Amino acid sequence: MIKKILDPVEPEELMGLAKEIGGFYVKVVVDIEREILVAGARMHIDEEQALLNDGSLQSSLWGGGYDLDMKQVTFDSIINNRPGVNSSSDILDPEVRKKFEIIVRKLLNV
Question: How far, in Å, CA of 30 to CA of 99, rounded?
């Protein structure tokens, strides 16, 4: 279930989004400029495409997730690997990481 999230979700909704990945993890793609995210897909590319179709700019999109068991934001997605911008699947820029984490924690209500 892919869902665009503009406002903080309820715990039950977060659990529903995690079911796609075994019930303990939610993949997300965040638009750090628009401060929205898409969650609940099996692959980050599907979430990225949903935001691109919604008007987001590629340069503003970053992927990662949230581990419900560890209560930890993750910063790893193949969509983050951008030659000349980010040379890893991890988000390397500390400012981008911070924005990403703030938005994930706010909108997933964690």
Answer: 9
Chain segment 16-61, per-residue pLDDT in tens: 999 877 889 999 999 999 999 999 999 999 999 999 999 999 999 9
Q: What does the alpha-carbon distance between residue 99 and residue 67 come to, in Å, rounded to a whole number?
A: 18
Q: How far is CA 70 from the centre of its chain?
A: 16
Rounded to an integer, the average pLDDT of 82-88 is 95
83 three-state secondary structure: coil
Beta-bridge mates of residue 86: 82
